[in-house]
Amino acid sequence: MLLRHTPKEVVERSALTINPAKTCQPVGAMYAALGIHKCLPHSHGSQGCCAYHRSALTRHYAEPIMASTSSFTEGASVFGGQSNMLESINNIFALYDPDIIAVNTTCLSEVIGDDLNQIINRAIADNKIPKGKTVMYASTPSFKGSHVTGYANMLTAMVQNFATNTGKKNKSITLLPSFVEPSDMSEIKHIAAEMGIDYIMYPDTSGVVNAPMDGKFHMYPKGGTPREKIIASGDSRYALALGRVGTFQAAQLLDSKCKVKTEILDLPIGISATDAFIDKLRTTSGVTVPESITVERGQLVDVLCDKAQYVYGKKISLMGDPDILFGLVQFCKDAGMEVIHVITGTPAGAKWDRRIKELAGPNAIVKSGAQADLFYFHQLLQNTKPDLIFGNTYCKYIARDMDIPLIRTGFPIYDRIGHSYFPITGYRGGLHLLVKILDVFMDRQDRDASEEKFELVM
Amino acid sequence: MVEVLEARKQQVLEKGKDTYALECEKASTAGSVSQRACVFCGSRVVLYPIADALHLIHGPIGCAAYTWELRGSLSSGPELHRLSFSTDLKENDVIYGGEKKLYAALTELINEYKPKAAFVYCTCIIGLIGDDVDAVCAKVEKEHGIQVIPVHSEGFKGTKKDGYKAACEGAFKLTGKDNTTPVSDFSINILGEFNLAGETWIIKDYYKRMGIEVTSCITGDGRVGEIGKAHRARLNVVQCSGSMTYLAKMMEKEYGIPFIRVSYFGIEDMSKALYDVADFFNNEKIMENTKELVRSEVSDLLPRLAEFRKDLEGKKAGVYVGGSFKAFSMVKALRHLGMETVVVGSQTGSPEDYEYLKEITNEGTIILDDTNPLELSGFILEKGADLLIGGVKERPIAYKMGIGFCDHNHERKEALAGFEGMLNFAREVHNSVTSPVWKYSPARMKAQEKKI
Ligand code: SF4
Ligand code: SF4
């Protein structure tokens, strides 16, 4: 067995990450950029990074993921990547014709110290950027942060480059979601639309990385937020950012740059967080909650009450992305489960640590950052075995080793499908999540039941 | 018309129409959506299957995260290679250097896991910040009494091919250690077979049936100890020549072991590989065994292939794979299934490789080097292919177009090498191409309407 080497005793490690619970910034930036319509992510560095990031997203979404690369060679790493970047801009507009090139840096270009601002200005001065087109960039060195911070940085770049305050407010409110699945983006839109709210949301990867099959390969699928909308977000009445770690910076910038009043909420995962989101939409827009939403909520609560005994008191361990973990932990608590471990490889900050500890309860072990890796997670689980794990695909080794069921959440998920089609946000997402949890526990109960206790009705 | 970037015009040709020699072995055009990876990727995939060695990736986290468990190289014993170890460099390390961290990480890991050897992969920024990785490795080697081998695979220092070279240098350092364990007169090393989906086991079994000892396999299901006696085998048999010829040449020079290049894919190439090895030993018994083996395997296989061929006759295929040797075998293997290859390319082919591809393909075939999705999908559509053979990034492209797909890269779950691999290949191609799901593709539905 792959993980038989993991010793139970936890010793402090300083120099080493074993089986990381995170990955690097550019992949998150690339994902965020895909949420703008007709935007081509571009990786400024050597080919390898870009190939890896595309492969990671391709595996996770089972979709063609497009991104170009500056193709650094030794020359570029000595003399800087300016000429590669300028050549890239030329070639990309000539061949792939995007509206926007969203550049993310890699470790390499960061260490060399390429000044993307200056390079882009140079491209503008040299008339290399066709009229109406944009080249934007986010700095995403991977020796800081994780895929979530990369996402956050690209989202911030969107505000920086596009959001414009014309002095004349429009009717819409702006929604900035953290790193979640396209299905979750859809669900957030569904709630806003159901409530009759005029909204602008970005990024929006629905319809891009879960696009329908129509017999053609599209460089730019139909989905993604149009740039005009992002520009108009600077005039919106109000902005709600969902999931602090992924959106904080962007929200702040929208506030300071465009004077859009901005508030940060948790991602609407689970009942309480979705309640809070809907309530905020209601009060800021002066609308009433429609019957349809009340029904969705009622259904979720109904199922939860019906089957609460199957989840009550169950021990849960979670690893994943910081914003999603909030929702999941809260949801577990709402259902009467006991959260015993929460880890994220993303350095989410002391505030996150504190808040999630509060939420999870005094007995839960919480850790974030580099040393919160899956090796450590496995050690924790060996010391106290949970009934269920929430985590990404890599947790499957631990799950198998210890015979614990795993519900796949977060990034990456390489071995199951559905995450990009069925949400975990909103009440409908909550119901979907709850059904998954129930399936796991009830399947176990069936599996482990003795002959005489194996029953038809549960 | 498929649009091709000006700078790439000479990297694409149509057989029979274009007369120029295909341009290749150059860096990808900046700004292209290249399907290629980096030096590090090259060395990682080659050395990865050595299962009782420690593989530590020195650099920021991503390089380690992306190469963790993504290649199905199976091991029949230890599985240390499947864990992901990284020094996970932070900003401070980038500024002040990562040597201390590397030393500490190596020490911790060697104490914990007692590996037989250790590889330290240097990724891009290590090359830039200038850590003296060699010195750290030498120090740890002395302290722990196992080989600690730096692999200089900084991503930007070339292409995947340079990574192969770095890996070969690394693997070479493991050879020449064991001079006592007896080695047969009829012994070979298998080079460049990575045990994806257990393929090494299939191939090893063939050699065993021929009466030949496999002294070591570099690197499929590899062991440090086994590679230690590789220098005493009589012949190196190189599959995946793109990656391992360099090692074979080093071993030829240093130990006087000759080598031959083979491919284990498809009926002809597989049979030829076995015959070439038998020829080399010039031994009646071995030759007889080989004939018997090929005869029984092929006569078993052919009728079963015919089943699949019935449905596949006249269908067309596109092939885009990493190495060009694999592309050759694919063209031939597809022919056995009654299929014509209409688009074919690789990421790393040489001029001679492309000349050979020209020889074995039909008029009108598109041949391309280091292509991108826009071109690839364009040519596939233009030529009306029913199947694409490629790797992870090509799969969804094929599906979006509503055509079949066969993974011939790291991710495949089926063994495709050997005679039984050919059967798996045929089945996979058959099932994918004839799957009823394609009839729901709007493009196909339209085509169908037109026909009626
Ligand atoms: S960690 Fe840095 S160098 Fe490695 S893949 Fe990510 S961006 Fe590239
Ligand atoms: S940083 Fe360098 S070594 Fe790592 S994936 Fe990128 S190109 Fe390859």
Automatic annotation (TrEMBL), chain A:
Q: Which UniProt keywords apply?
A: ATP-binding, Iron, Iron-sulfur, Metal-binding, Nitrogen fixation, Nucleotide-binding, Oxidoreductase
Instruction: Please give the cofactor(s) recorded in the UniProt entry for this protein.
Output: [8Fe-7S] cluster
Domain Nitrogenase/oxidoreductase component: from-to ranges: 24-440
This entry's Gene Ontology molecular function terms read: ATP binding; iron-sulfur cluster binding; metal ion binding; nitrogenase activity
Can you cite an annotated GO cellular component? molybdenum-iron nitrogenase complex
SUPFAM superfamilies according to UniProt: Helical backbone' metal receptor
Q: How is the cofactor bound?
A: Binds 1 [8Fe-7S] cluster per heterodimer.
InterPro entries reported in the protein's UniProt record: ChlB/BchB/BchZ, Nase/OxRdtase_comp1, Nase_comp1_CS, Nase_Mo-Fe_CF_bsu
**One Pfam family from the record:** Oxidored_nitro
What domain of life does the UniProt record list for this protein's source? Bacteria
Q: What is its EC number?
A: 1.18.6.1
Q: Quickly give the catalysed reaction.
A: N2 + 8 reduced [2Fe-2S]-[ferredoxin] + 16 ATP + 16 H2O = H2 + 8 oxidized [2Fe-2S]-[ferredoxin] + 2 NH4(+) + 16 ADP + 16 phosphate + 6 H(+)
Task: Please state which protein family the record places this protein in.
Answer: Belongs to the NifD/NifK/NifE/NifN family.
Q: State whether it acts alone or in a complex, and with which partners, per the record.
A: Tetramer of two alpha and two beta chains. Forms complex with the iron protein (nitrogenase component 2).
Q: What does this protein do?
A: This molybdenum-iron protein is part of the nitrogenase complex that catalyzes the key enzymatic reactions in nitrogen fixation.
What is the recorded name of this protein?
Answer: Nitrogenase molybdenum-iron protein beta chain
Query: Its encoding gene is what?
Result: nifK
Automatic annotation (TrEMBL), chain B:
Q: Which residues form the Nitrogenase/oxidoreductase component domain?
A: 38-433
Give an example GO biological process: protein-containing complex assembly
Q: Cross-referenced InterPro entries, in alphabetical order?
A: Nase/OxRdtase_comp1, Nase_comp1_CS, NifE, NifE-like
Q: Which Pfam families match?
A: Oxidored_nitro
Task: Kindly indicate whether the keyword Zinc-finger belongs to this entry.
Answer: no
Q: Which GO terms describe its molecular function?
A: nitrogenase activity
Keywords, alphabetical: Nitrogen fixation
Look up the record and name the pathway of this protein.
Cofactor biosynthesis; Fe-Mo cofactor biosynthesis
What protein family is recorded? Belongs to the NifD/NifK/NifE/NifN family.
Name the job this protein performs.
This protein may play a role in the biosynthesis of the prosthetic group of nitrogenase (FeMo cofactor).
> Which NCBIfam families would you find in this protein's record?
nifE
Name-wise, this protein is Nitrogenase iron-molybdenum cofactor biosynthesis protein NifE
